[in-house]
Write a structure and sequence with these properties.
This protein is α/β, with parallel strands linked by helices. It is built from 13 helices and 8 strands. Strands 1-2-3-4-5-6-7-8 form an 8-stranded parallel barrel, surrounded by 7 helices. It binds 3-hydroxypyruvic acid (3PY) and magnesium ion.
Amino acid sequence: MKKNKLREIIKSGKAIINGWLQIPNSFSAEVMAKQGWDSLTIDMQHGVIDYPNALQMLQAISTTETTPLARVNWNEPGQIMKILDAGCYGVICPMISNKEQAEKFVQACMYPPKGYRSFGPIRALMYAGADYGDHANEEILKIAMIETKEALDKLDDIMSTPGVDGIYIGPADLSLAVGEKPSFDKPESDPVYPVIMKILEHAKKNNIFAGLHNMTPEYAQKMIDKGFQFVTVGSEQRFMTSGGKEAVEKLKGKSKGVESKTY
Ligand code: 3PY
Ligand code: MG
């Protein structure tokens, strides 16, 4: 089986630079894949992407060395198994709140006896190699999102669950969980900032990597310096929005549109 290069990056102590895909199109996925991201995540939760789109996007990403990941829309074994069959090398699962949910998630990603994934890696066999079934349990990255109120009381339970390779913080939902307005790139003065740092410390303690969703490369770099080893920067939709907005503003003056602090 083709190795998961993301595991090598983590082992070397470096950070995975992850791009985020929310547009249901193989050409935009290909354009992003050509830019040299370590990984690209197909966002099936908040992106406007369904399975047939995701399949074509995976084919586009396969034209490059970029590692394909997906964020599923819920902790739902059918969707998790199906996107793995399509050749994803890792799954990000939203809103994991306790150990039971963490087990349900990671075990959906693993074949028996470690898990309960059903066998049928129809495209993964072509993408990864004929021995996929022998190594998938170890190669596939299982990444649990920490972004709910309950999870904050159960960080060690979730992070010590066998099979959880890393956690991923969603700052928008985490903000809501602690009674704040959703936004990314939280400044140090923001009440959510210490919560993010606390989650990072627990990940370090549990020897798993921590990931964070960011808006700008500057903020992502700051978080790498703090110890995050998986950082997402923007999304293709965000890049399109900011590039288009900047061009129009230069020619037509400041737009009246209010810029989103999240997606
Ligand atoms: C959040 O900020 O809640 C996310 O899920 C980011 O993707
Ligand atoms: Mg979220």
